[in-house]
Design goal:
Layout: H1 16-24, H2 30-51, E1 62-68, E2 73-78, H3 85-91, H4 100-106, E3 129-137, E4 146-150, E5 156-160, E6 167-174, H5 184-194, E7 201-204, E8 207-208, H6 225-235, E9 244-250, E10 256-262, E11 275-280, E12 283-286, E13 301-305, H7 322-345, H8 347-367, H9 369-375, E14 380-383, E15 396-398, E16 401-405, H10 406-411, E17 420-424, H11 431-439, E18 445-446, H12 452-462, E19 467-470, H13 494-506, E20 511-516, E21 527-530, H14 533-545, E22 556-561, H15 565-578, H16 587-606, H17 612-631
Parallel strand pairs: 1-7, 11-13, 17-18, 17-19, 20-22
Antiparallel strand pairs: 1-2, 2-6, 3-4, 3-6, 4-5, 7-8, 9-10, 10-13, 11-12, 14-16, 14-18, 15-16, 21-22
Amino acid sequence: MTVLEQGQIQIHTENIFPIIKKAVYSGHEVFLRELVSNAADAISKRRMAAMAGDCSEGAEGNVSIRIDRENKTITITDNGIGMTADEVKRYINQVAFSSAEDFLEKYKKEDDAIIGHFGLGFYSSFMVAREVELITCSARPNSEPVRWCCDGSPNFSLEAAERSEPGTDVILHLLDEEVEYLEPARLRNLITQYCDFMPVTVELEGEPVNKKIAPWRQSPRELTDEDYIELYRYLYPFQGDPLLWVHLNTDYPYALQGILFFPKVSGRADWEKGEIRLYCNQVFVSDSIKEIVPRYLLPLRGVIDSPDIPLNVSRSALQTDRRVRSIGNFVAKKVADRLRSLKQEDAKSYAEAWDALAPFVKIGAMEDEKFADQVSELILFGTTAPPNPSETEEPIAVGDQAFTTLAGYRARQASDHVNRVLYCTDEIAQAGALSLWKGQGAEVLLAETVIDSQFIPWLESKHSELKFQRIDAELDESMRDEQPELTDQDGESPSESLRGLIKKALNNDKVTIQVQALKGGADSPAALILLPEQMRRMNDIGALMEQRLPGLPDHHVLLVNRRHPMVEGLLKLNAGSVLVSNETSSPSQQLAASLAKHLYDMARLSVGGLEPNELAGFQSRSTKLMSELMERGM
């Protein structure tokens, strides 16, 4: 093939400026962050050059911001290394990018994803300014000050200027629609948001604004508990004090510092965006770092600061790559290490914080297999077992509640029940079943949070040798007080007669009726709703998929305790009603049927099985039934 011509593709700079001004940065206000960051960098460069003997050291680094309302200008001044005329030509006049084709292609898109620093921060000033002046003088010996000026087009001017000290002034002549930045309060808020922890003083109208010191850049040995708490209160005012914190610090394979706090969670936590703040060299970048921190740690609060996190050119979005995933794993491991050390060093304090820690640990374990291994011995459950007098051994007392690990629970079980785990999801709704199990000396774990409906099946999948049984799923043989029953002339026992009565009264083939004698007499419930474990789990999953609370499954078991006085009374009433003449429905039979229905309604009520629209009917029937019983003197 014949080559007709070779050469370089020409890029028209007038096409680049609109992209820089309108597409690269998502918000105009970041111009201040970029310009103050450049000023801080210039101060750092002067310090390093002075240490090498290449320039004068000068005074302590300082960035000053001045407002001129009359002329509609903002001036950002630093006493950094400054620039020579040649450096202005190199760093200001040449827009730095690795590939013009990639730049134009990717930065015309809303979701840009280029890694690296493109030297475009200075040009963010044109988002708010119709004209930008730069007056600078290099700190290197025998340098002459110069003035650069541009109106946002590819045209500029460069000329000699007057400036007695090394450093740079950036003068922004604001657009009419951007005069909000002439308000000191607006600029002060931006300095606090973006530049609060910069290592140089930032002044507004001669008054220092930023805190300057970033505690996460200090060694943990240099900080007291009060220092950590003070930082938390400053970052998250009116949120109370944190439960505990994790200090992050590594320089390989990436540089990263930070402090993460476990908050005292109240209400719904933000599991989608989070409140951890991302900094790059102490400059605020974003408060949404879901690409870095695993989802289960997003509700944590605090700061992560790293120059190695890959940001796009505007620092407004993160690049998801292997390094980011590695940082997420590092953060998760440090969190697990911190929780482990707390549990080992102060088990009582760990147990006291567990209710707030549990969502992070449980969700993290279910979503991250590596994290699950790291926290497997840190998962606590409330337990009905009495607390250990020692504050370091299980069960651990926290007020009236005791906490234990799954391993501790299993160690206390009898050999014939070591692979069975009894648990309760609602102490009030399952009070009847709970009292029966506790009456037999059984220890029951408390799993009463919404997360536990998913966490228990997950635990069971991790421990295939274990059977997790909710206390109202079935009853142990030891709870039954079975004795032979006498039968009537037709060979029917009282239990069979009672079962028939209730079955006829309910007229519901989906309800399986069992009549048994339970230990405890009047202290045991008159009737219980039993939900076989797998049936109940299927019901819970179905409710979860439809995003509603699980209700009572249509198919369930009604267990009637024939040793309860109320049931014994029903048995007598039923036996008496048989002696009535051949009336189809005697008053005694009607009352017995009403009592049977009431017995079932009370069992349903105890497990939340009565729908709201059924409660009024239940109250009405109860009142009528009580009136009839009083009339009979029962």
